[in-house]
Amino acid sequence: xxGLKAVIEALIFASETPLDVNKLADVLDSVEKKAIRDxxxxxxxEYNSENRGFCIVEVAGGYHFRTKxxxxxxxxxxxxGKPATLTPVMMETLAVIAYRQPVLKAEIDKxxxxxxGGAIKKLLDRKLVRIVGRKDVPGKPIIYGTTQRFLEVFNxxxxxxxxxxxxxxxxxx
Length: 173
Fold this sequence. Notes:
Blueprint: H1 4-14, H2 21-27, H3 33-49, E1 54-59, E2 62-67, H4 72-79, H5 88-100, E3 103-104, H6 105-112, H7 117-125, E4 129-134, E5 142-146, H8 148-153, H9 165-172
Helix pairs in contact: 1-3, 5-7
């Protein structure tokens, strides 16, 4: 397809969420997935090699435009303020959910040693966690897991990119 690179670039630009190869193939019904992957690799290489303010990254199972980290001081000035932050309680609760999912609130409370209802509600409001379902036991407790938004915010392709416990211990040392 002539202009494939420009079409893929436009689709990624227009999408509010990361686009995966399957979605791109659905839109570009006459183009093979291999051609799409090859084109994406060329686009990524081009953006990374040029001195531009943005790039295409693979995140949350798809591809998305992101500003380069080098330009964050100017972006912060433009936005006039700090980015929305997560409290330590929210971060700890999110970490438990991310590493133990699917997980019940009671299990999260047990790991943290405190009631995490407020933190879970805030994480649900920010769309970082979601209700995965209900456990088939008396009371039908809610089961929680992370969302695609979680992957996007933390710049992860998928959950396998979470650091291991060994890597976390090495970082602390």
